[in-house]
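Thiamine-binding protein domain-containing protein structure dump, as promised
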Amino acid sequence: MISSIAVQVLPMTTDTDEVIRIVDYVIAYIDKSGVNYQVGPFESSLEGDYDQLMNILKELPKVAAQISDIPVMVYSKINMATKSDVLTIAKKTDKYRDK
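C-alpha cells r here:
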C-alpha cells in the first residue's frame, strides 16, 4: 500500500543559517531512508509503505536533536488509503515541472 506524507521540520530559532543546517540534516536522513521524496520550499513530500513513513516521521525530531538543542516543531499531513494506492508525487506534480 502506497501512502504519502508531507512533513515540515521547523526549528524554533530566528537564525536562518541554523534553520538551514538542521533542515538539511533532516533531509539527509530522509534521503538515506530510501523512500521516494521531493523537497519543496515549505515541506517535503514522502511516499512509500505507511508503516515505513510513520517510522521516519516519528524519528525526525530525534534526528534534529542529534545536531542541535534548538526545539523543533514538526508538522505533517498524511494520505493513506486502505483499499487502493494514493496518488503519487509524480502524478500530482509532474505536469507543473516545466512552468
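Residues 1 and 95 are 24 Å apart (CA to CA).
lmk if u need the other ones
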